[in-house]
Amino acid sequence: MLNKLVIDPSSRNSIFILRDALSNEISPIIKSGRPVIVLCIGTDRSTGDSLGPLVGDKLKFLIRDKIYLYGNLENPVHAKNLSQIITEIYDKYENPFVIAIDACLGSLQNVGKVVIDGKPLSPGAAMSKDLPKIGDLSITGIVNISGAMEFMVLQNTRLFTVMQLAEVIARGLYHSIIKTIGGKKSTSILQNKLNENIEA
User: Fold this and answer.
1) Phi, psi of 19 (to 5 degrees)
2) 36-79 pLDDT, tens per residue?
3) Domain positions in the chain
4) Domain 5-183 CATH superfamily
5) How far is CA 161 from CA 85, 103, 184, in A?
6) Which of 6, 21, 71, 97 could link 40 by a cystine bridge, Cβ 3.0 to 4.6 Å?
């Protein structure tokens, strides 16, 4: 099981560190035949909470055999539908391996960093929402500082910070899938679109 790993997106090797860490976790899962669910949590109605949908939007062309994606800007997975989506995932897929992605608040020195952990995340924790824990593996982006008035903090988060985190997470996850299972056959058009999305 992966131990907690903190990655600084401004580091030149951040995408490769993220890619390799995820590949090590995903590879045995894929070989065992388990489906991998990428669950991007958040809403585009709040800048600080838009990390998940942005990552999902960047990865919407990544769907391939045994890799499934939930949550993007058009169809976000948020507090109101999270429980329903989780139920749907476990009803639809046999023994799924869920990679949960969400924004979070943290200490000042960790703002703008990505945290990968081999345990579930607690969506809505910053807002004291009672939502189910989810994820065999979690990826969180620390978008702002924790403390009082979390709702206002999320609303006043810099879009630059969120976009930088989304870019690194999307690229790292994309390259981990390519490294683990290769490109998608007979879908060069979709592959080119994904490359444009994450390299633009």
Assistant:
1) -60, -50
2) 999 999 999 888 899 999 999 999 877 777 899 999 999 999 98
3) 5-183
4) HybD-like (3.40.50.1450)
5) 27, 11, 31
6) 71
